[in-house]
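Page 37, continued from 36.
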């Protein structure tokens, strides 16, 4: 019986020692702020419009209102502007896609993301070309002089958009 008690006591002490002293190592976990992509929608004349007129928001996207939009968006009207916003914890592992419909026309967009490190986070604010039917992409990994930071993230002007050429052309 005494032998059983000694073995049980030894076992309990080993388990408690593992629980108490085992996790004392410094945790190597990382916390990410999260990445966001905001997209300004414009009509065919280039006027900033409410994205709800052209885009059906679905998770993980939403329509967000930006206060003081002219501070960060060229040609934005005074006051708040609504934009499409996508959000991911840490970063976007793949390109973001969106389809807009306006006046019976369809505009398909692809936001090509930079290669992120595992815990890297970044904010993007992307301006739109005037609404045109077709498929367009923007490369958000470029670091050119007309990309600038503001409180909403890196701002990419509309001139960065490229029309996707179909295989038939």
């Amino acid at each position: 019986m005494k032998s059983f008690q000694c073995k049980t006591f030894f076992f309990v002490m080993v388990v408690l020692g593992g629980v108490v002293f085992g996790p004392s190592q410094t945790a190597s976990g990382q916390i990410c702020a999260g990445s966001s992509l905001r997209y300004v929608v414009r009509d065919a004349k280039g006027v900033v419009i409410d994205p709800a007129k052209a885009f059906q928001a679905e998770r993980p996207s939403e329509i967000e209102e930006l206060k003081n939009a002219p501070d960060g968006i060229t040609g934005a009207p005074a006051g708040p502007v609504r934009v499409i916003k996508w959000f991911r914890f840490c970063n976007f592992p793949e390109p973001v896609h969106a389809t807009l419909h306006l006046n019976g026309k369809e505009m398909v967009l692809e936001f090509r993301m930079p290669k992120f490190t595992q815990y890297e986070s970044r904010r993007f604010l992307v301006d739109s070309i005037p609404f045109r039917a077709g498929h367009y992409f923007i490369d958000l990994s470029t670091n050119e002089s007309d990309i600038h930071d503001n409180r909403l993230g890196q701002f990419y002007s509309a001139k960065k958009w490229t029309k996707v050429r179909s295989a038939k052309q």
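The CA atoms of residues 6 and 144 lie 72 Å apart. Flag for discussion at group meeting. Residues 19-27 have pLDDT under 50 and may be disordered.
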